[in-house]
Amino acid sequence: MIAGPYLLYLGHSQDEVGIKTSRGMAVFRRDDCVGEFRHDDCPFTLDLPRMGFDQAVAAGAKTLVLGIANAGGTMGEDLVRDAADAIASGLDVASGLHSRLRDEPVLVAAAREHGRTLHDVRDPRPDIPVGNGKPRAGRRLLTIGTDCSVGKMYATLCLEQGMRARGLKADFRATGQTGILIAGGGVPLDAVIADFISGAIEQLSPERHDGGWDLIEGQGSLFHPSFAGVSTGLLHGSQADALVLCHDPVRPHMRGLPHYPMPGLAETLEANLRVARLTSPHVQAVGVALNTSKMPRAAAERLCAETADALGLPCTDPFAMGVDPIIDRITECFEPSPRAATASL
Amino acid sequence: MIAGPYLLYLGHSQDEVGIKTSRGMAVFRRDDCVGEFRHDDCPFTLDLPRMGFDQAVAAGAKTLVLGIANAGGTMGEDLVRDAADAIASGLDVASGLHSRLRDEPVLVAAAREHGRTLHDVRDPRPDIPVGNGKPRAGRRLLTIGTDCSVGKMYATLCLEQGMRARGLKADFRATGQTGILIAGGGVPLDAVIADFISGAIEQLSPERHDGGWDLIEGQGSLFHPSFAGVSTGLLHGSQADALVLCHDPVRPHMRGLPHYPMPGLAETLEANLRVARLTSPHVQAVGVALNTSKMPRAAAERLCAETADALGLPCTDPFAMGVDPIIDRITECFEPSPRAATASL
Predict the structure, then answer these.
(1) Which of A56, A304, B175, B300 is the most buried (most CB within 10 A)?
(2) How far apart are CA B130 and CA B236, in angstroms?
(3) Distance (Å, rounded) from C-alpha A90 to C-alpha B112?
(4) By a Cβ cutoff of 8 Å, what residues of chain A touch chain B?
(5) A232:B228 CB<8 A
(6) Which of A225, A275, A279 sits opposite B236 (nearest CB)?
(7) How far is B327 from B329, CA to CA, in rounded Å?
(8) B306-319: per-residue pLDDT in tens?
(9) A121: left (phi over 0), alpha (psi -120 to 50) or beta
């Protein structure tokens, strides 16, 4: 486990997408973050106190979280130097980058010298089984999408907050590096060997008997020609009772592929339900989550209403407008209402 | 490249399924095999001369092919001892086992001492790209299946032989360890990282401009809950013009999963065509290949005729009955007949 509280790293980051992991931590684990570390040329802030490594240690920080990504996921010299300084100040270091901390001799030596720990969250555990598709107890919700990076992690985390606020048991199950750092655990699905995709999800979300929900973070899209295999294994491994469809209404084409248009929402839902039914015959769609962060509020609300009408499903922007309509639908479909429970006595 | 000719290893093997790689080599690369090596307790033969390592070297063998699999893909002590003896006699060693030759210190030392090479064909090359789905030139055929291990590799290799016999350019593209050993190259798809499945197939079967066909060996099944992610990425990466559906008519349930019934042939075809269309909008089914090795010949022929009628596609057992009906269909759909070519002048 990664020790908190955390210092979030921004470094020299120059693009907003590159800091999404640090921003995710600041949004969903704010109480566990003591500050942010950034150089003078970094134009971004997470609205946390800016501090150096010694100052962060004095404020109680235990781990520097390298919550950034650069082209290719590599570690630049400046990043390695900063991480080494952080270790010398007494911090552990956690990274979700493709390049591994353990492959940087400078950091391995510094960690040994100062008795600190390096966490590479993109290393899958070594004991992932082949999936078996056996029906298992418990309730599971999976977020699916028209494309990569359309808000599946945010929607899943917002659902966890919203369900817990209603007294429902619900646990976020992370499948990507940002989610893993936020949750403190999970499976880095993009680093798992192809034959073990569904097995990794069966392991991540085993049977549960407490009436609670596992809320599984989706990845990729059945309509993305680079990553649909991952999405397929994720659907089969999840044995989802409920799907929430995520979409970015202003995305012009499939991420990274200008020659691939976005699929329609109804088409996406239908394809996902069809694939999901192999391991979960009674799977239902329970809502649509739109990322409307780039739209005026009035237009966003109109689009949610239109989408809800068109698909016959509650539709919201989970982050901007909350998740109540989706939780209402989940409760209708799966949770006995107090009256119904009484009536059945 | 793995140097031929080969000595095929049977060792102490006690089950027929476990020797399928050695048998595949004996069937499809017979001219390149000088003999078989087996201990007295092995009840099988490939109908090749039985010989020891020194005798094989004298007969011209360059490489011992460990074409067997045991539970878990591990290397037993006796296998390691045999491989070390083979190296001492002057043979290279090639293996498709999950366990790697390079992880056996005894074999690494022996290879160094005797100047021999160890080939682990389950190691994917390190430069596999993420798939991009861009349309590429050339014609590609992919074998798909109702399940794992229903004869996709045999069907694909028989199609290569049959198409070449008709003067068509056609090249088998291997995606599993047996196919790789037979072809002398390919990608071990079950060892590729999840995010790179479709990219691995784009790399295996790049654009071609000579009018020839790439015949891509299928893996798994869209209806197998353990491996459908691999099959999905394979469909997208292949950009197949033509699909051949493979099936084992006596398989009682999905391989290894008694709780999963086999899907129907029409259902399997429809699902595969739907997934394939994302990257290859005009994909067509061109035939059905049944593995009838466990059926009486008359019943097998009747089943092929009935299946052809039901699906409106040529149906054959490629290994027992040849592939002519399927090649006829391919020619009709894709190759201009001499008369048509003349008429269009």
Answers:
(1) B175
(2) 12
(3) 45
(4) 130-135, 189-195, 197-199, 222-223, 225-234, 236-237, 256-257, 259-260, 271, 274-275, 278-279
(5) yes
(6) A225
(7) 5
(8) 999 999 999 999 99
(9) alpha
The set of residues, in sequence order, having a beta carbon less than 8 Å from that of A287 and lying 6+ positions away, is A244, A245, A313, A314, A315, A316, A323, A325, A326, A329, A330
**What is the number of H-type helices and E-type strands within chain A?**
13, 11
- Across B178-283, the runs of DSSP E, i.e. the strands, are 213-216, 242-247
Contacts of B257 in chain A (CB under 8 A): 132-133
Which residue type does B79 have?
Answer: L
The sheet carrying B284-290 orders its strands as B170-173, B213-216, B139-145, B242-247, B284-290, B315-316
For residue A124, the chain B residue with the least C-alpha distance is B193
Which chain A residues are Cβ-neighbours of B256 within 8 angstroms?
132
Residue spans of alpha helices (H) in B277-311? 297-311
- Asked if the model's pLDDT at residue A295 lies above 70, the reply is yes
CA distance B305 to chain A (A): 30
For B88, the token pair is: 């001492």
Judge contact between B66 and B178, C-beta under 8 A: no
Poorest-pLDDT segment among A168-172, A254-258, A322-326, B15-19: B15-19
**Are A233 and B229 within 8 A, CB to CB?**
yes
Q: CB distance A226–B132 less than 8 Å?
A: yes
Which of A131, A192, A226 faces B226 most closely, judged by CB atoms? A131
d(CA B332, CA B161): 19
Residues in chain A within 8 Å Cβ distance of B279: 225
Class of residue A41 by CB neighbours under 10 A (exposed 0-12, middle 13-18, buried 19+): exposed
Total CB pairs under 8 A between chain A and B: 124
Q: Under 8 Å CB-to-CB from B234, ≥6 apart: which residues?
A: A229, B142, B175, B189, B197, B198, B201, B216, B218, B219, B220
Of A131, A132, A229, the CB nearest to B194: A229
pTM: 0.92
Contact B235, B247 (CB under 8 A): no
Written as one letter, the residue type at B97 is L
Q: Closest chain A residue to B272 measured between Cα atoms?
A: A275
* Domain residue ranges of chain B, discontinuous segments joined by +: 6-120, 139-339
- Interface contact B226-A130, CB threshold 8 A: yes
Report the alpha-carbon distance of residue A321 to residue A292 in Å, rounded: 10
**Are the Cβ atoms of B259 and A133 closer than 8 angstroms?**
yes
Give the ipTM: 0.90
User: Before A225, cis peptide (omega within 30)?
Assistant: no
Distance CA B283, CA B273 (A): 7
Reading the block at residue B244, the tokens are 């051949």
Q: Do B232 and A227 touch (CB under 8 A)?
A: no
Check: CATH 3.40.50.300 for A139-339?
A: yes
Domain B6-120 CATH superfamily:
NAD(P)-binding Rossmann-like Domain (3.40.50.720)
**Under the phi-then-psi rule, with left for phi > 0, alpha for psi from -120 to 50, and beta for the rest, what region is B158?**
alpha
Are domains A6-120 and A139-339 of this chain identical in fold? Answer: yes
Q: Which helix (H) or strand (E) element contains residue A339?
A: helix A338-343
